[in-house]
């Protein structure tokens, strides 16, 4: 990491005042990683990129020393690292990520803006850019996943679209079962293996649940054939495997990622909740994660943070 930080910052034009990056040592980077975390990218076995993530008390993670080795620029390494940083920072319990960009590099400020960052404040010699992170919830058991789904259902309105992402067996259908329970959805919610979409009518006056499995679909055009738009307005639509396909259903949607633990003996799932558009404000997302009625989940989250 030190090698790539020195190479990246050394290749920049001289700054006044100079960056302190060239004073980083293995010890200083190790100390930063011990209190926070970071990402390190290689191409073959050559050092190619590095970012240090520094979590703050205010649940804001700061990205430092964002470095791509000059030999590997324009390979998409920075963007891949930034996506990974967002997940890591969310897993640390942070709700925002920020970084400092020097005034001398307006093209870098543009780069971050294209990745959803906005200028938060001006500081000497530069600007601080920031963006919200997905909310993270730790879900130890199947029952807890059902409970999370039911909590999400409490806040859903007709017209809402949820896109659920995660590997096979991660828990997307299990989460949808909880959403269905909360909506009073009739019928069993199962992975729609042969049927691509199912409508579950609400028996409690809540919106109906339209449950879609887009696993077999390869394009938004194929999704169009399901005529989901017809039911969209009066229902809640949950699309499993919908990433890259179902976004066109609604510019405002809740994106949910379900991740399994790296430890195969641990059933705990990490669920990341991100709102797209004005429908899902930061306050609304906080309600999903800290509704006051889910102490067990929240305490779990805090104890692991
Ligand atoms: P997907 O729809 O993502 O392919 P499913 O929801 O069909 O996944 O399957 C998840 C499986 O994992 C279910 O059998 C569920 O009971 C089990 N499971 C075990 N622990 C959990 C947990 N913490 N959260 C969700 N599911 C869990
Ligand atoms: Mg499924």
From TrEMBL:
One annotated GO biological process: tRNA threonylcarbamoyladenosine modification
Presence of the UniProt keyword Cytoplasm in the record: yes
Domain of life from the UniProt record: Bacteria
Main subcellular location of this protein, as a coarse class: cytoplasm
One GO cellular component term: cytoplasm
GO MF annotations, alphabetized: acyltransferase activity, transferring groups other than amino-acyl groups; ATP binding; metal ion binding
Keywords on record: ATP-binding, Cytoplasm, Magnesium, Metal-binding, Nucleotide-binding, Transferase, tRNA processing
Listed InterPro entries: Acyl_CoA_acyltransferase (IPR016181), GNAT_dom (IPR000182), P-loop_NTPase (IPR027417), T6A_TsaE (IPR003442)
Subcellular location: Cytoplasm
Domain N-acetyltransferase: 1-134
Protein family membership: Belongs to the TsaE family.
Main function: Required for the formation of a threonylcarbamoyl group on adenosine at position 37 (t(6)A37) in tRNAs that read codons beginning with adenine. Is involved in the transfer of the threonylcarbamoyl moiety of threonylcarbamoyl-AMP (TC-AMP) to the N6 group of A37, together with TsaD and TsaB. TsaE seems to play an indirect role in the t(6)A biosynthesis pathway, possibly in regulating the core enzymatic function of TsaD.
Protein name (Swiss-Prot/TrEMBL): tRNA threonylcarbamoyladenosine biosynthesis protein TsaE
UniProt source species: Microlunatus elymi
Record gene name: tsaE
